[in-house]
Amino acid sequence: MALALGKAGVSLKGVLTRLKNARASASTPPFAGFEWIIAGRYLRARRRGGGVSVVALFSVLGIAVGVATLIIVLSVMNGFRSELRSKIIGLNGHVFAAPIDRLFTDYVDLSDRLEKVAGVRAVVPMVQGQAFASSPYGGSGVLVRGVRESDLPKIPAVSGAIKSGTLEGFDSGEGIALGKRLADSLGLQAGDQVTLSTPKGASTPFGTAPRTKAYTVKAIFEIGVTDFDTTMAFMPLAEAQAFFNRDGDVSVIEIYIDNADAVGEMREPLEMAAERPILLTDWRQTNRTFFGALEVERNVMFLILNLIVIVATLNIISGLILLVRDKSSDIAILRTMGATPGTIMRVFLINGALIGLVGTAIGLIGGVLFTLNIKPIQRTLFPTAWDPTVRFLAEIPAEMNTNEVVIIVVTSVLLSLAATLYPSWRAARLDPVQALRYG
């Protein structure tokens, strides 16, 4: 008996004392101290049970990797969504007003009325049109936006991202602001000349003649989204009206609100403030497919990566089954000394729970630390691996969601506990006589 208990790493005197106390008192609570002692000793490496400890170690590592991967991947996907939304919405506005019955020739008064609506942060009337930009070094299609100089500070995605040149005196001359990647592709710098061409020029007896005009590059901006930095150009509103044959009107009025998710609630107040028929669309409608795809991909990744945790918990099952087989003699002796089936079951439940908790804790710490330092890690280890022309953004964004982290941790712990049920049940049903005879 002493030899068997010595194999378990448990003090014979201590176990006898606790078992006698347990038999003497029917009110001994579950998960008593001696149960934790036995469970802890079973997890320690022994010459005979070294294989069990190795399986337990790999179970801990598997759960840690799964939890850390879930935290990192979901944080990166959250960062992508937030970063793209902030940049796309920051440039394009939250609500777009278009004319229905007549053109926006009254855009000044209309903008003032819309800006007074509670919850509206800024209103920017603009002219939009497509053109072809060319220089001696190349050419590219561009989306031209005509805005007033006073409205540029309302678009911080542009006014706060000037890399060279200046926007001062934007309305006074025939200047233009280009995205950085567009300027690089054309070989232009601030102060150079760029030529814009559009098929919608002056009307003649022979039809509409194309319009071509040279502009000075007053500023170069970098929004951080490749599609925008490659195709966007801004010019003074009056110049854009002349270039695109607008007779004192604008093509769209963009409205920025305080809460981007409250666009549905803003429709009625905006329509009432307009005092004329207008067509309102919002960022959710214009980007529904894009953000919907991101949400689907995020949910699918959560399910797929959970498989890593599930595979790790299967290692817990195999490890505990090996442990039960290895400790069958010890279990039989403990039963003859007065340990109940519930006691045996709880010992192995504690074993599996410790593996799950330790693995989850390591994964949580590792995932959080990696996520918080993901940009320095990227710059240090993979400085050229992130191509912004493919992935839209210049750096890997990451944004941890506390609720998601809690769900990941709880899911991992519950899966670990579920994996211990069958091996623990088998240990509790072990026949002491058969175990001693054949153990």
TrEMBL record:
Organism domain of life: Bacteria
Primary localization: membrane
Record keywords, A-Z: Cell membrane, Lipoprotein, Membrane, Transmembrane, Transmembrane helix, Transport
Transmembrane segments: 52-77, 300-324, 344-372, 405-425
InterPro entries linked: ABC3_permease_C, Lipoprotein-release_system, LolCE_TM, MacB_PCD
Membrane topology category: Multi-pass membrane protein
Compartment(s) of residence: Cell membrane
Domain ABC3 transporter permease C-terminal: 304-432
Start and end residues of each MacB-like periplasmic core domain: 57-266
Record family assignment: Belongs to the ABC-4 integral membrane protein family. LolC/E subfamily.
PANTHER family: LIPOPROTEIN-RELEASING SYSTEM TRANSMEMBRANE PROTEIN LOLE
Name of the protein in question: Lipoprotein-releasing system transmembrane protein LolE
Gene name as annotated: lolE
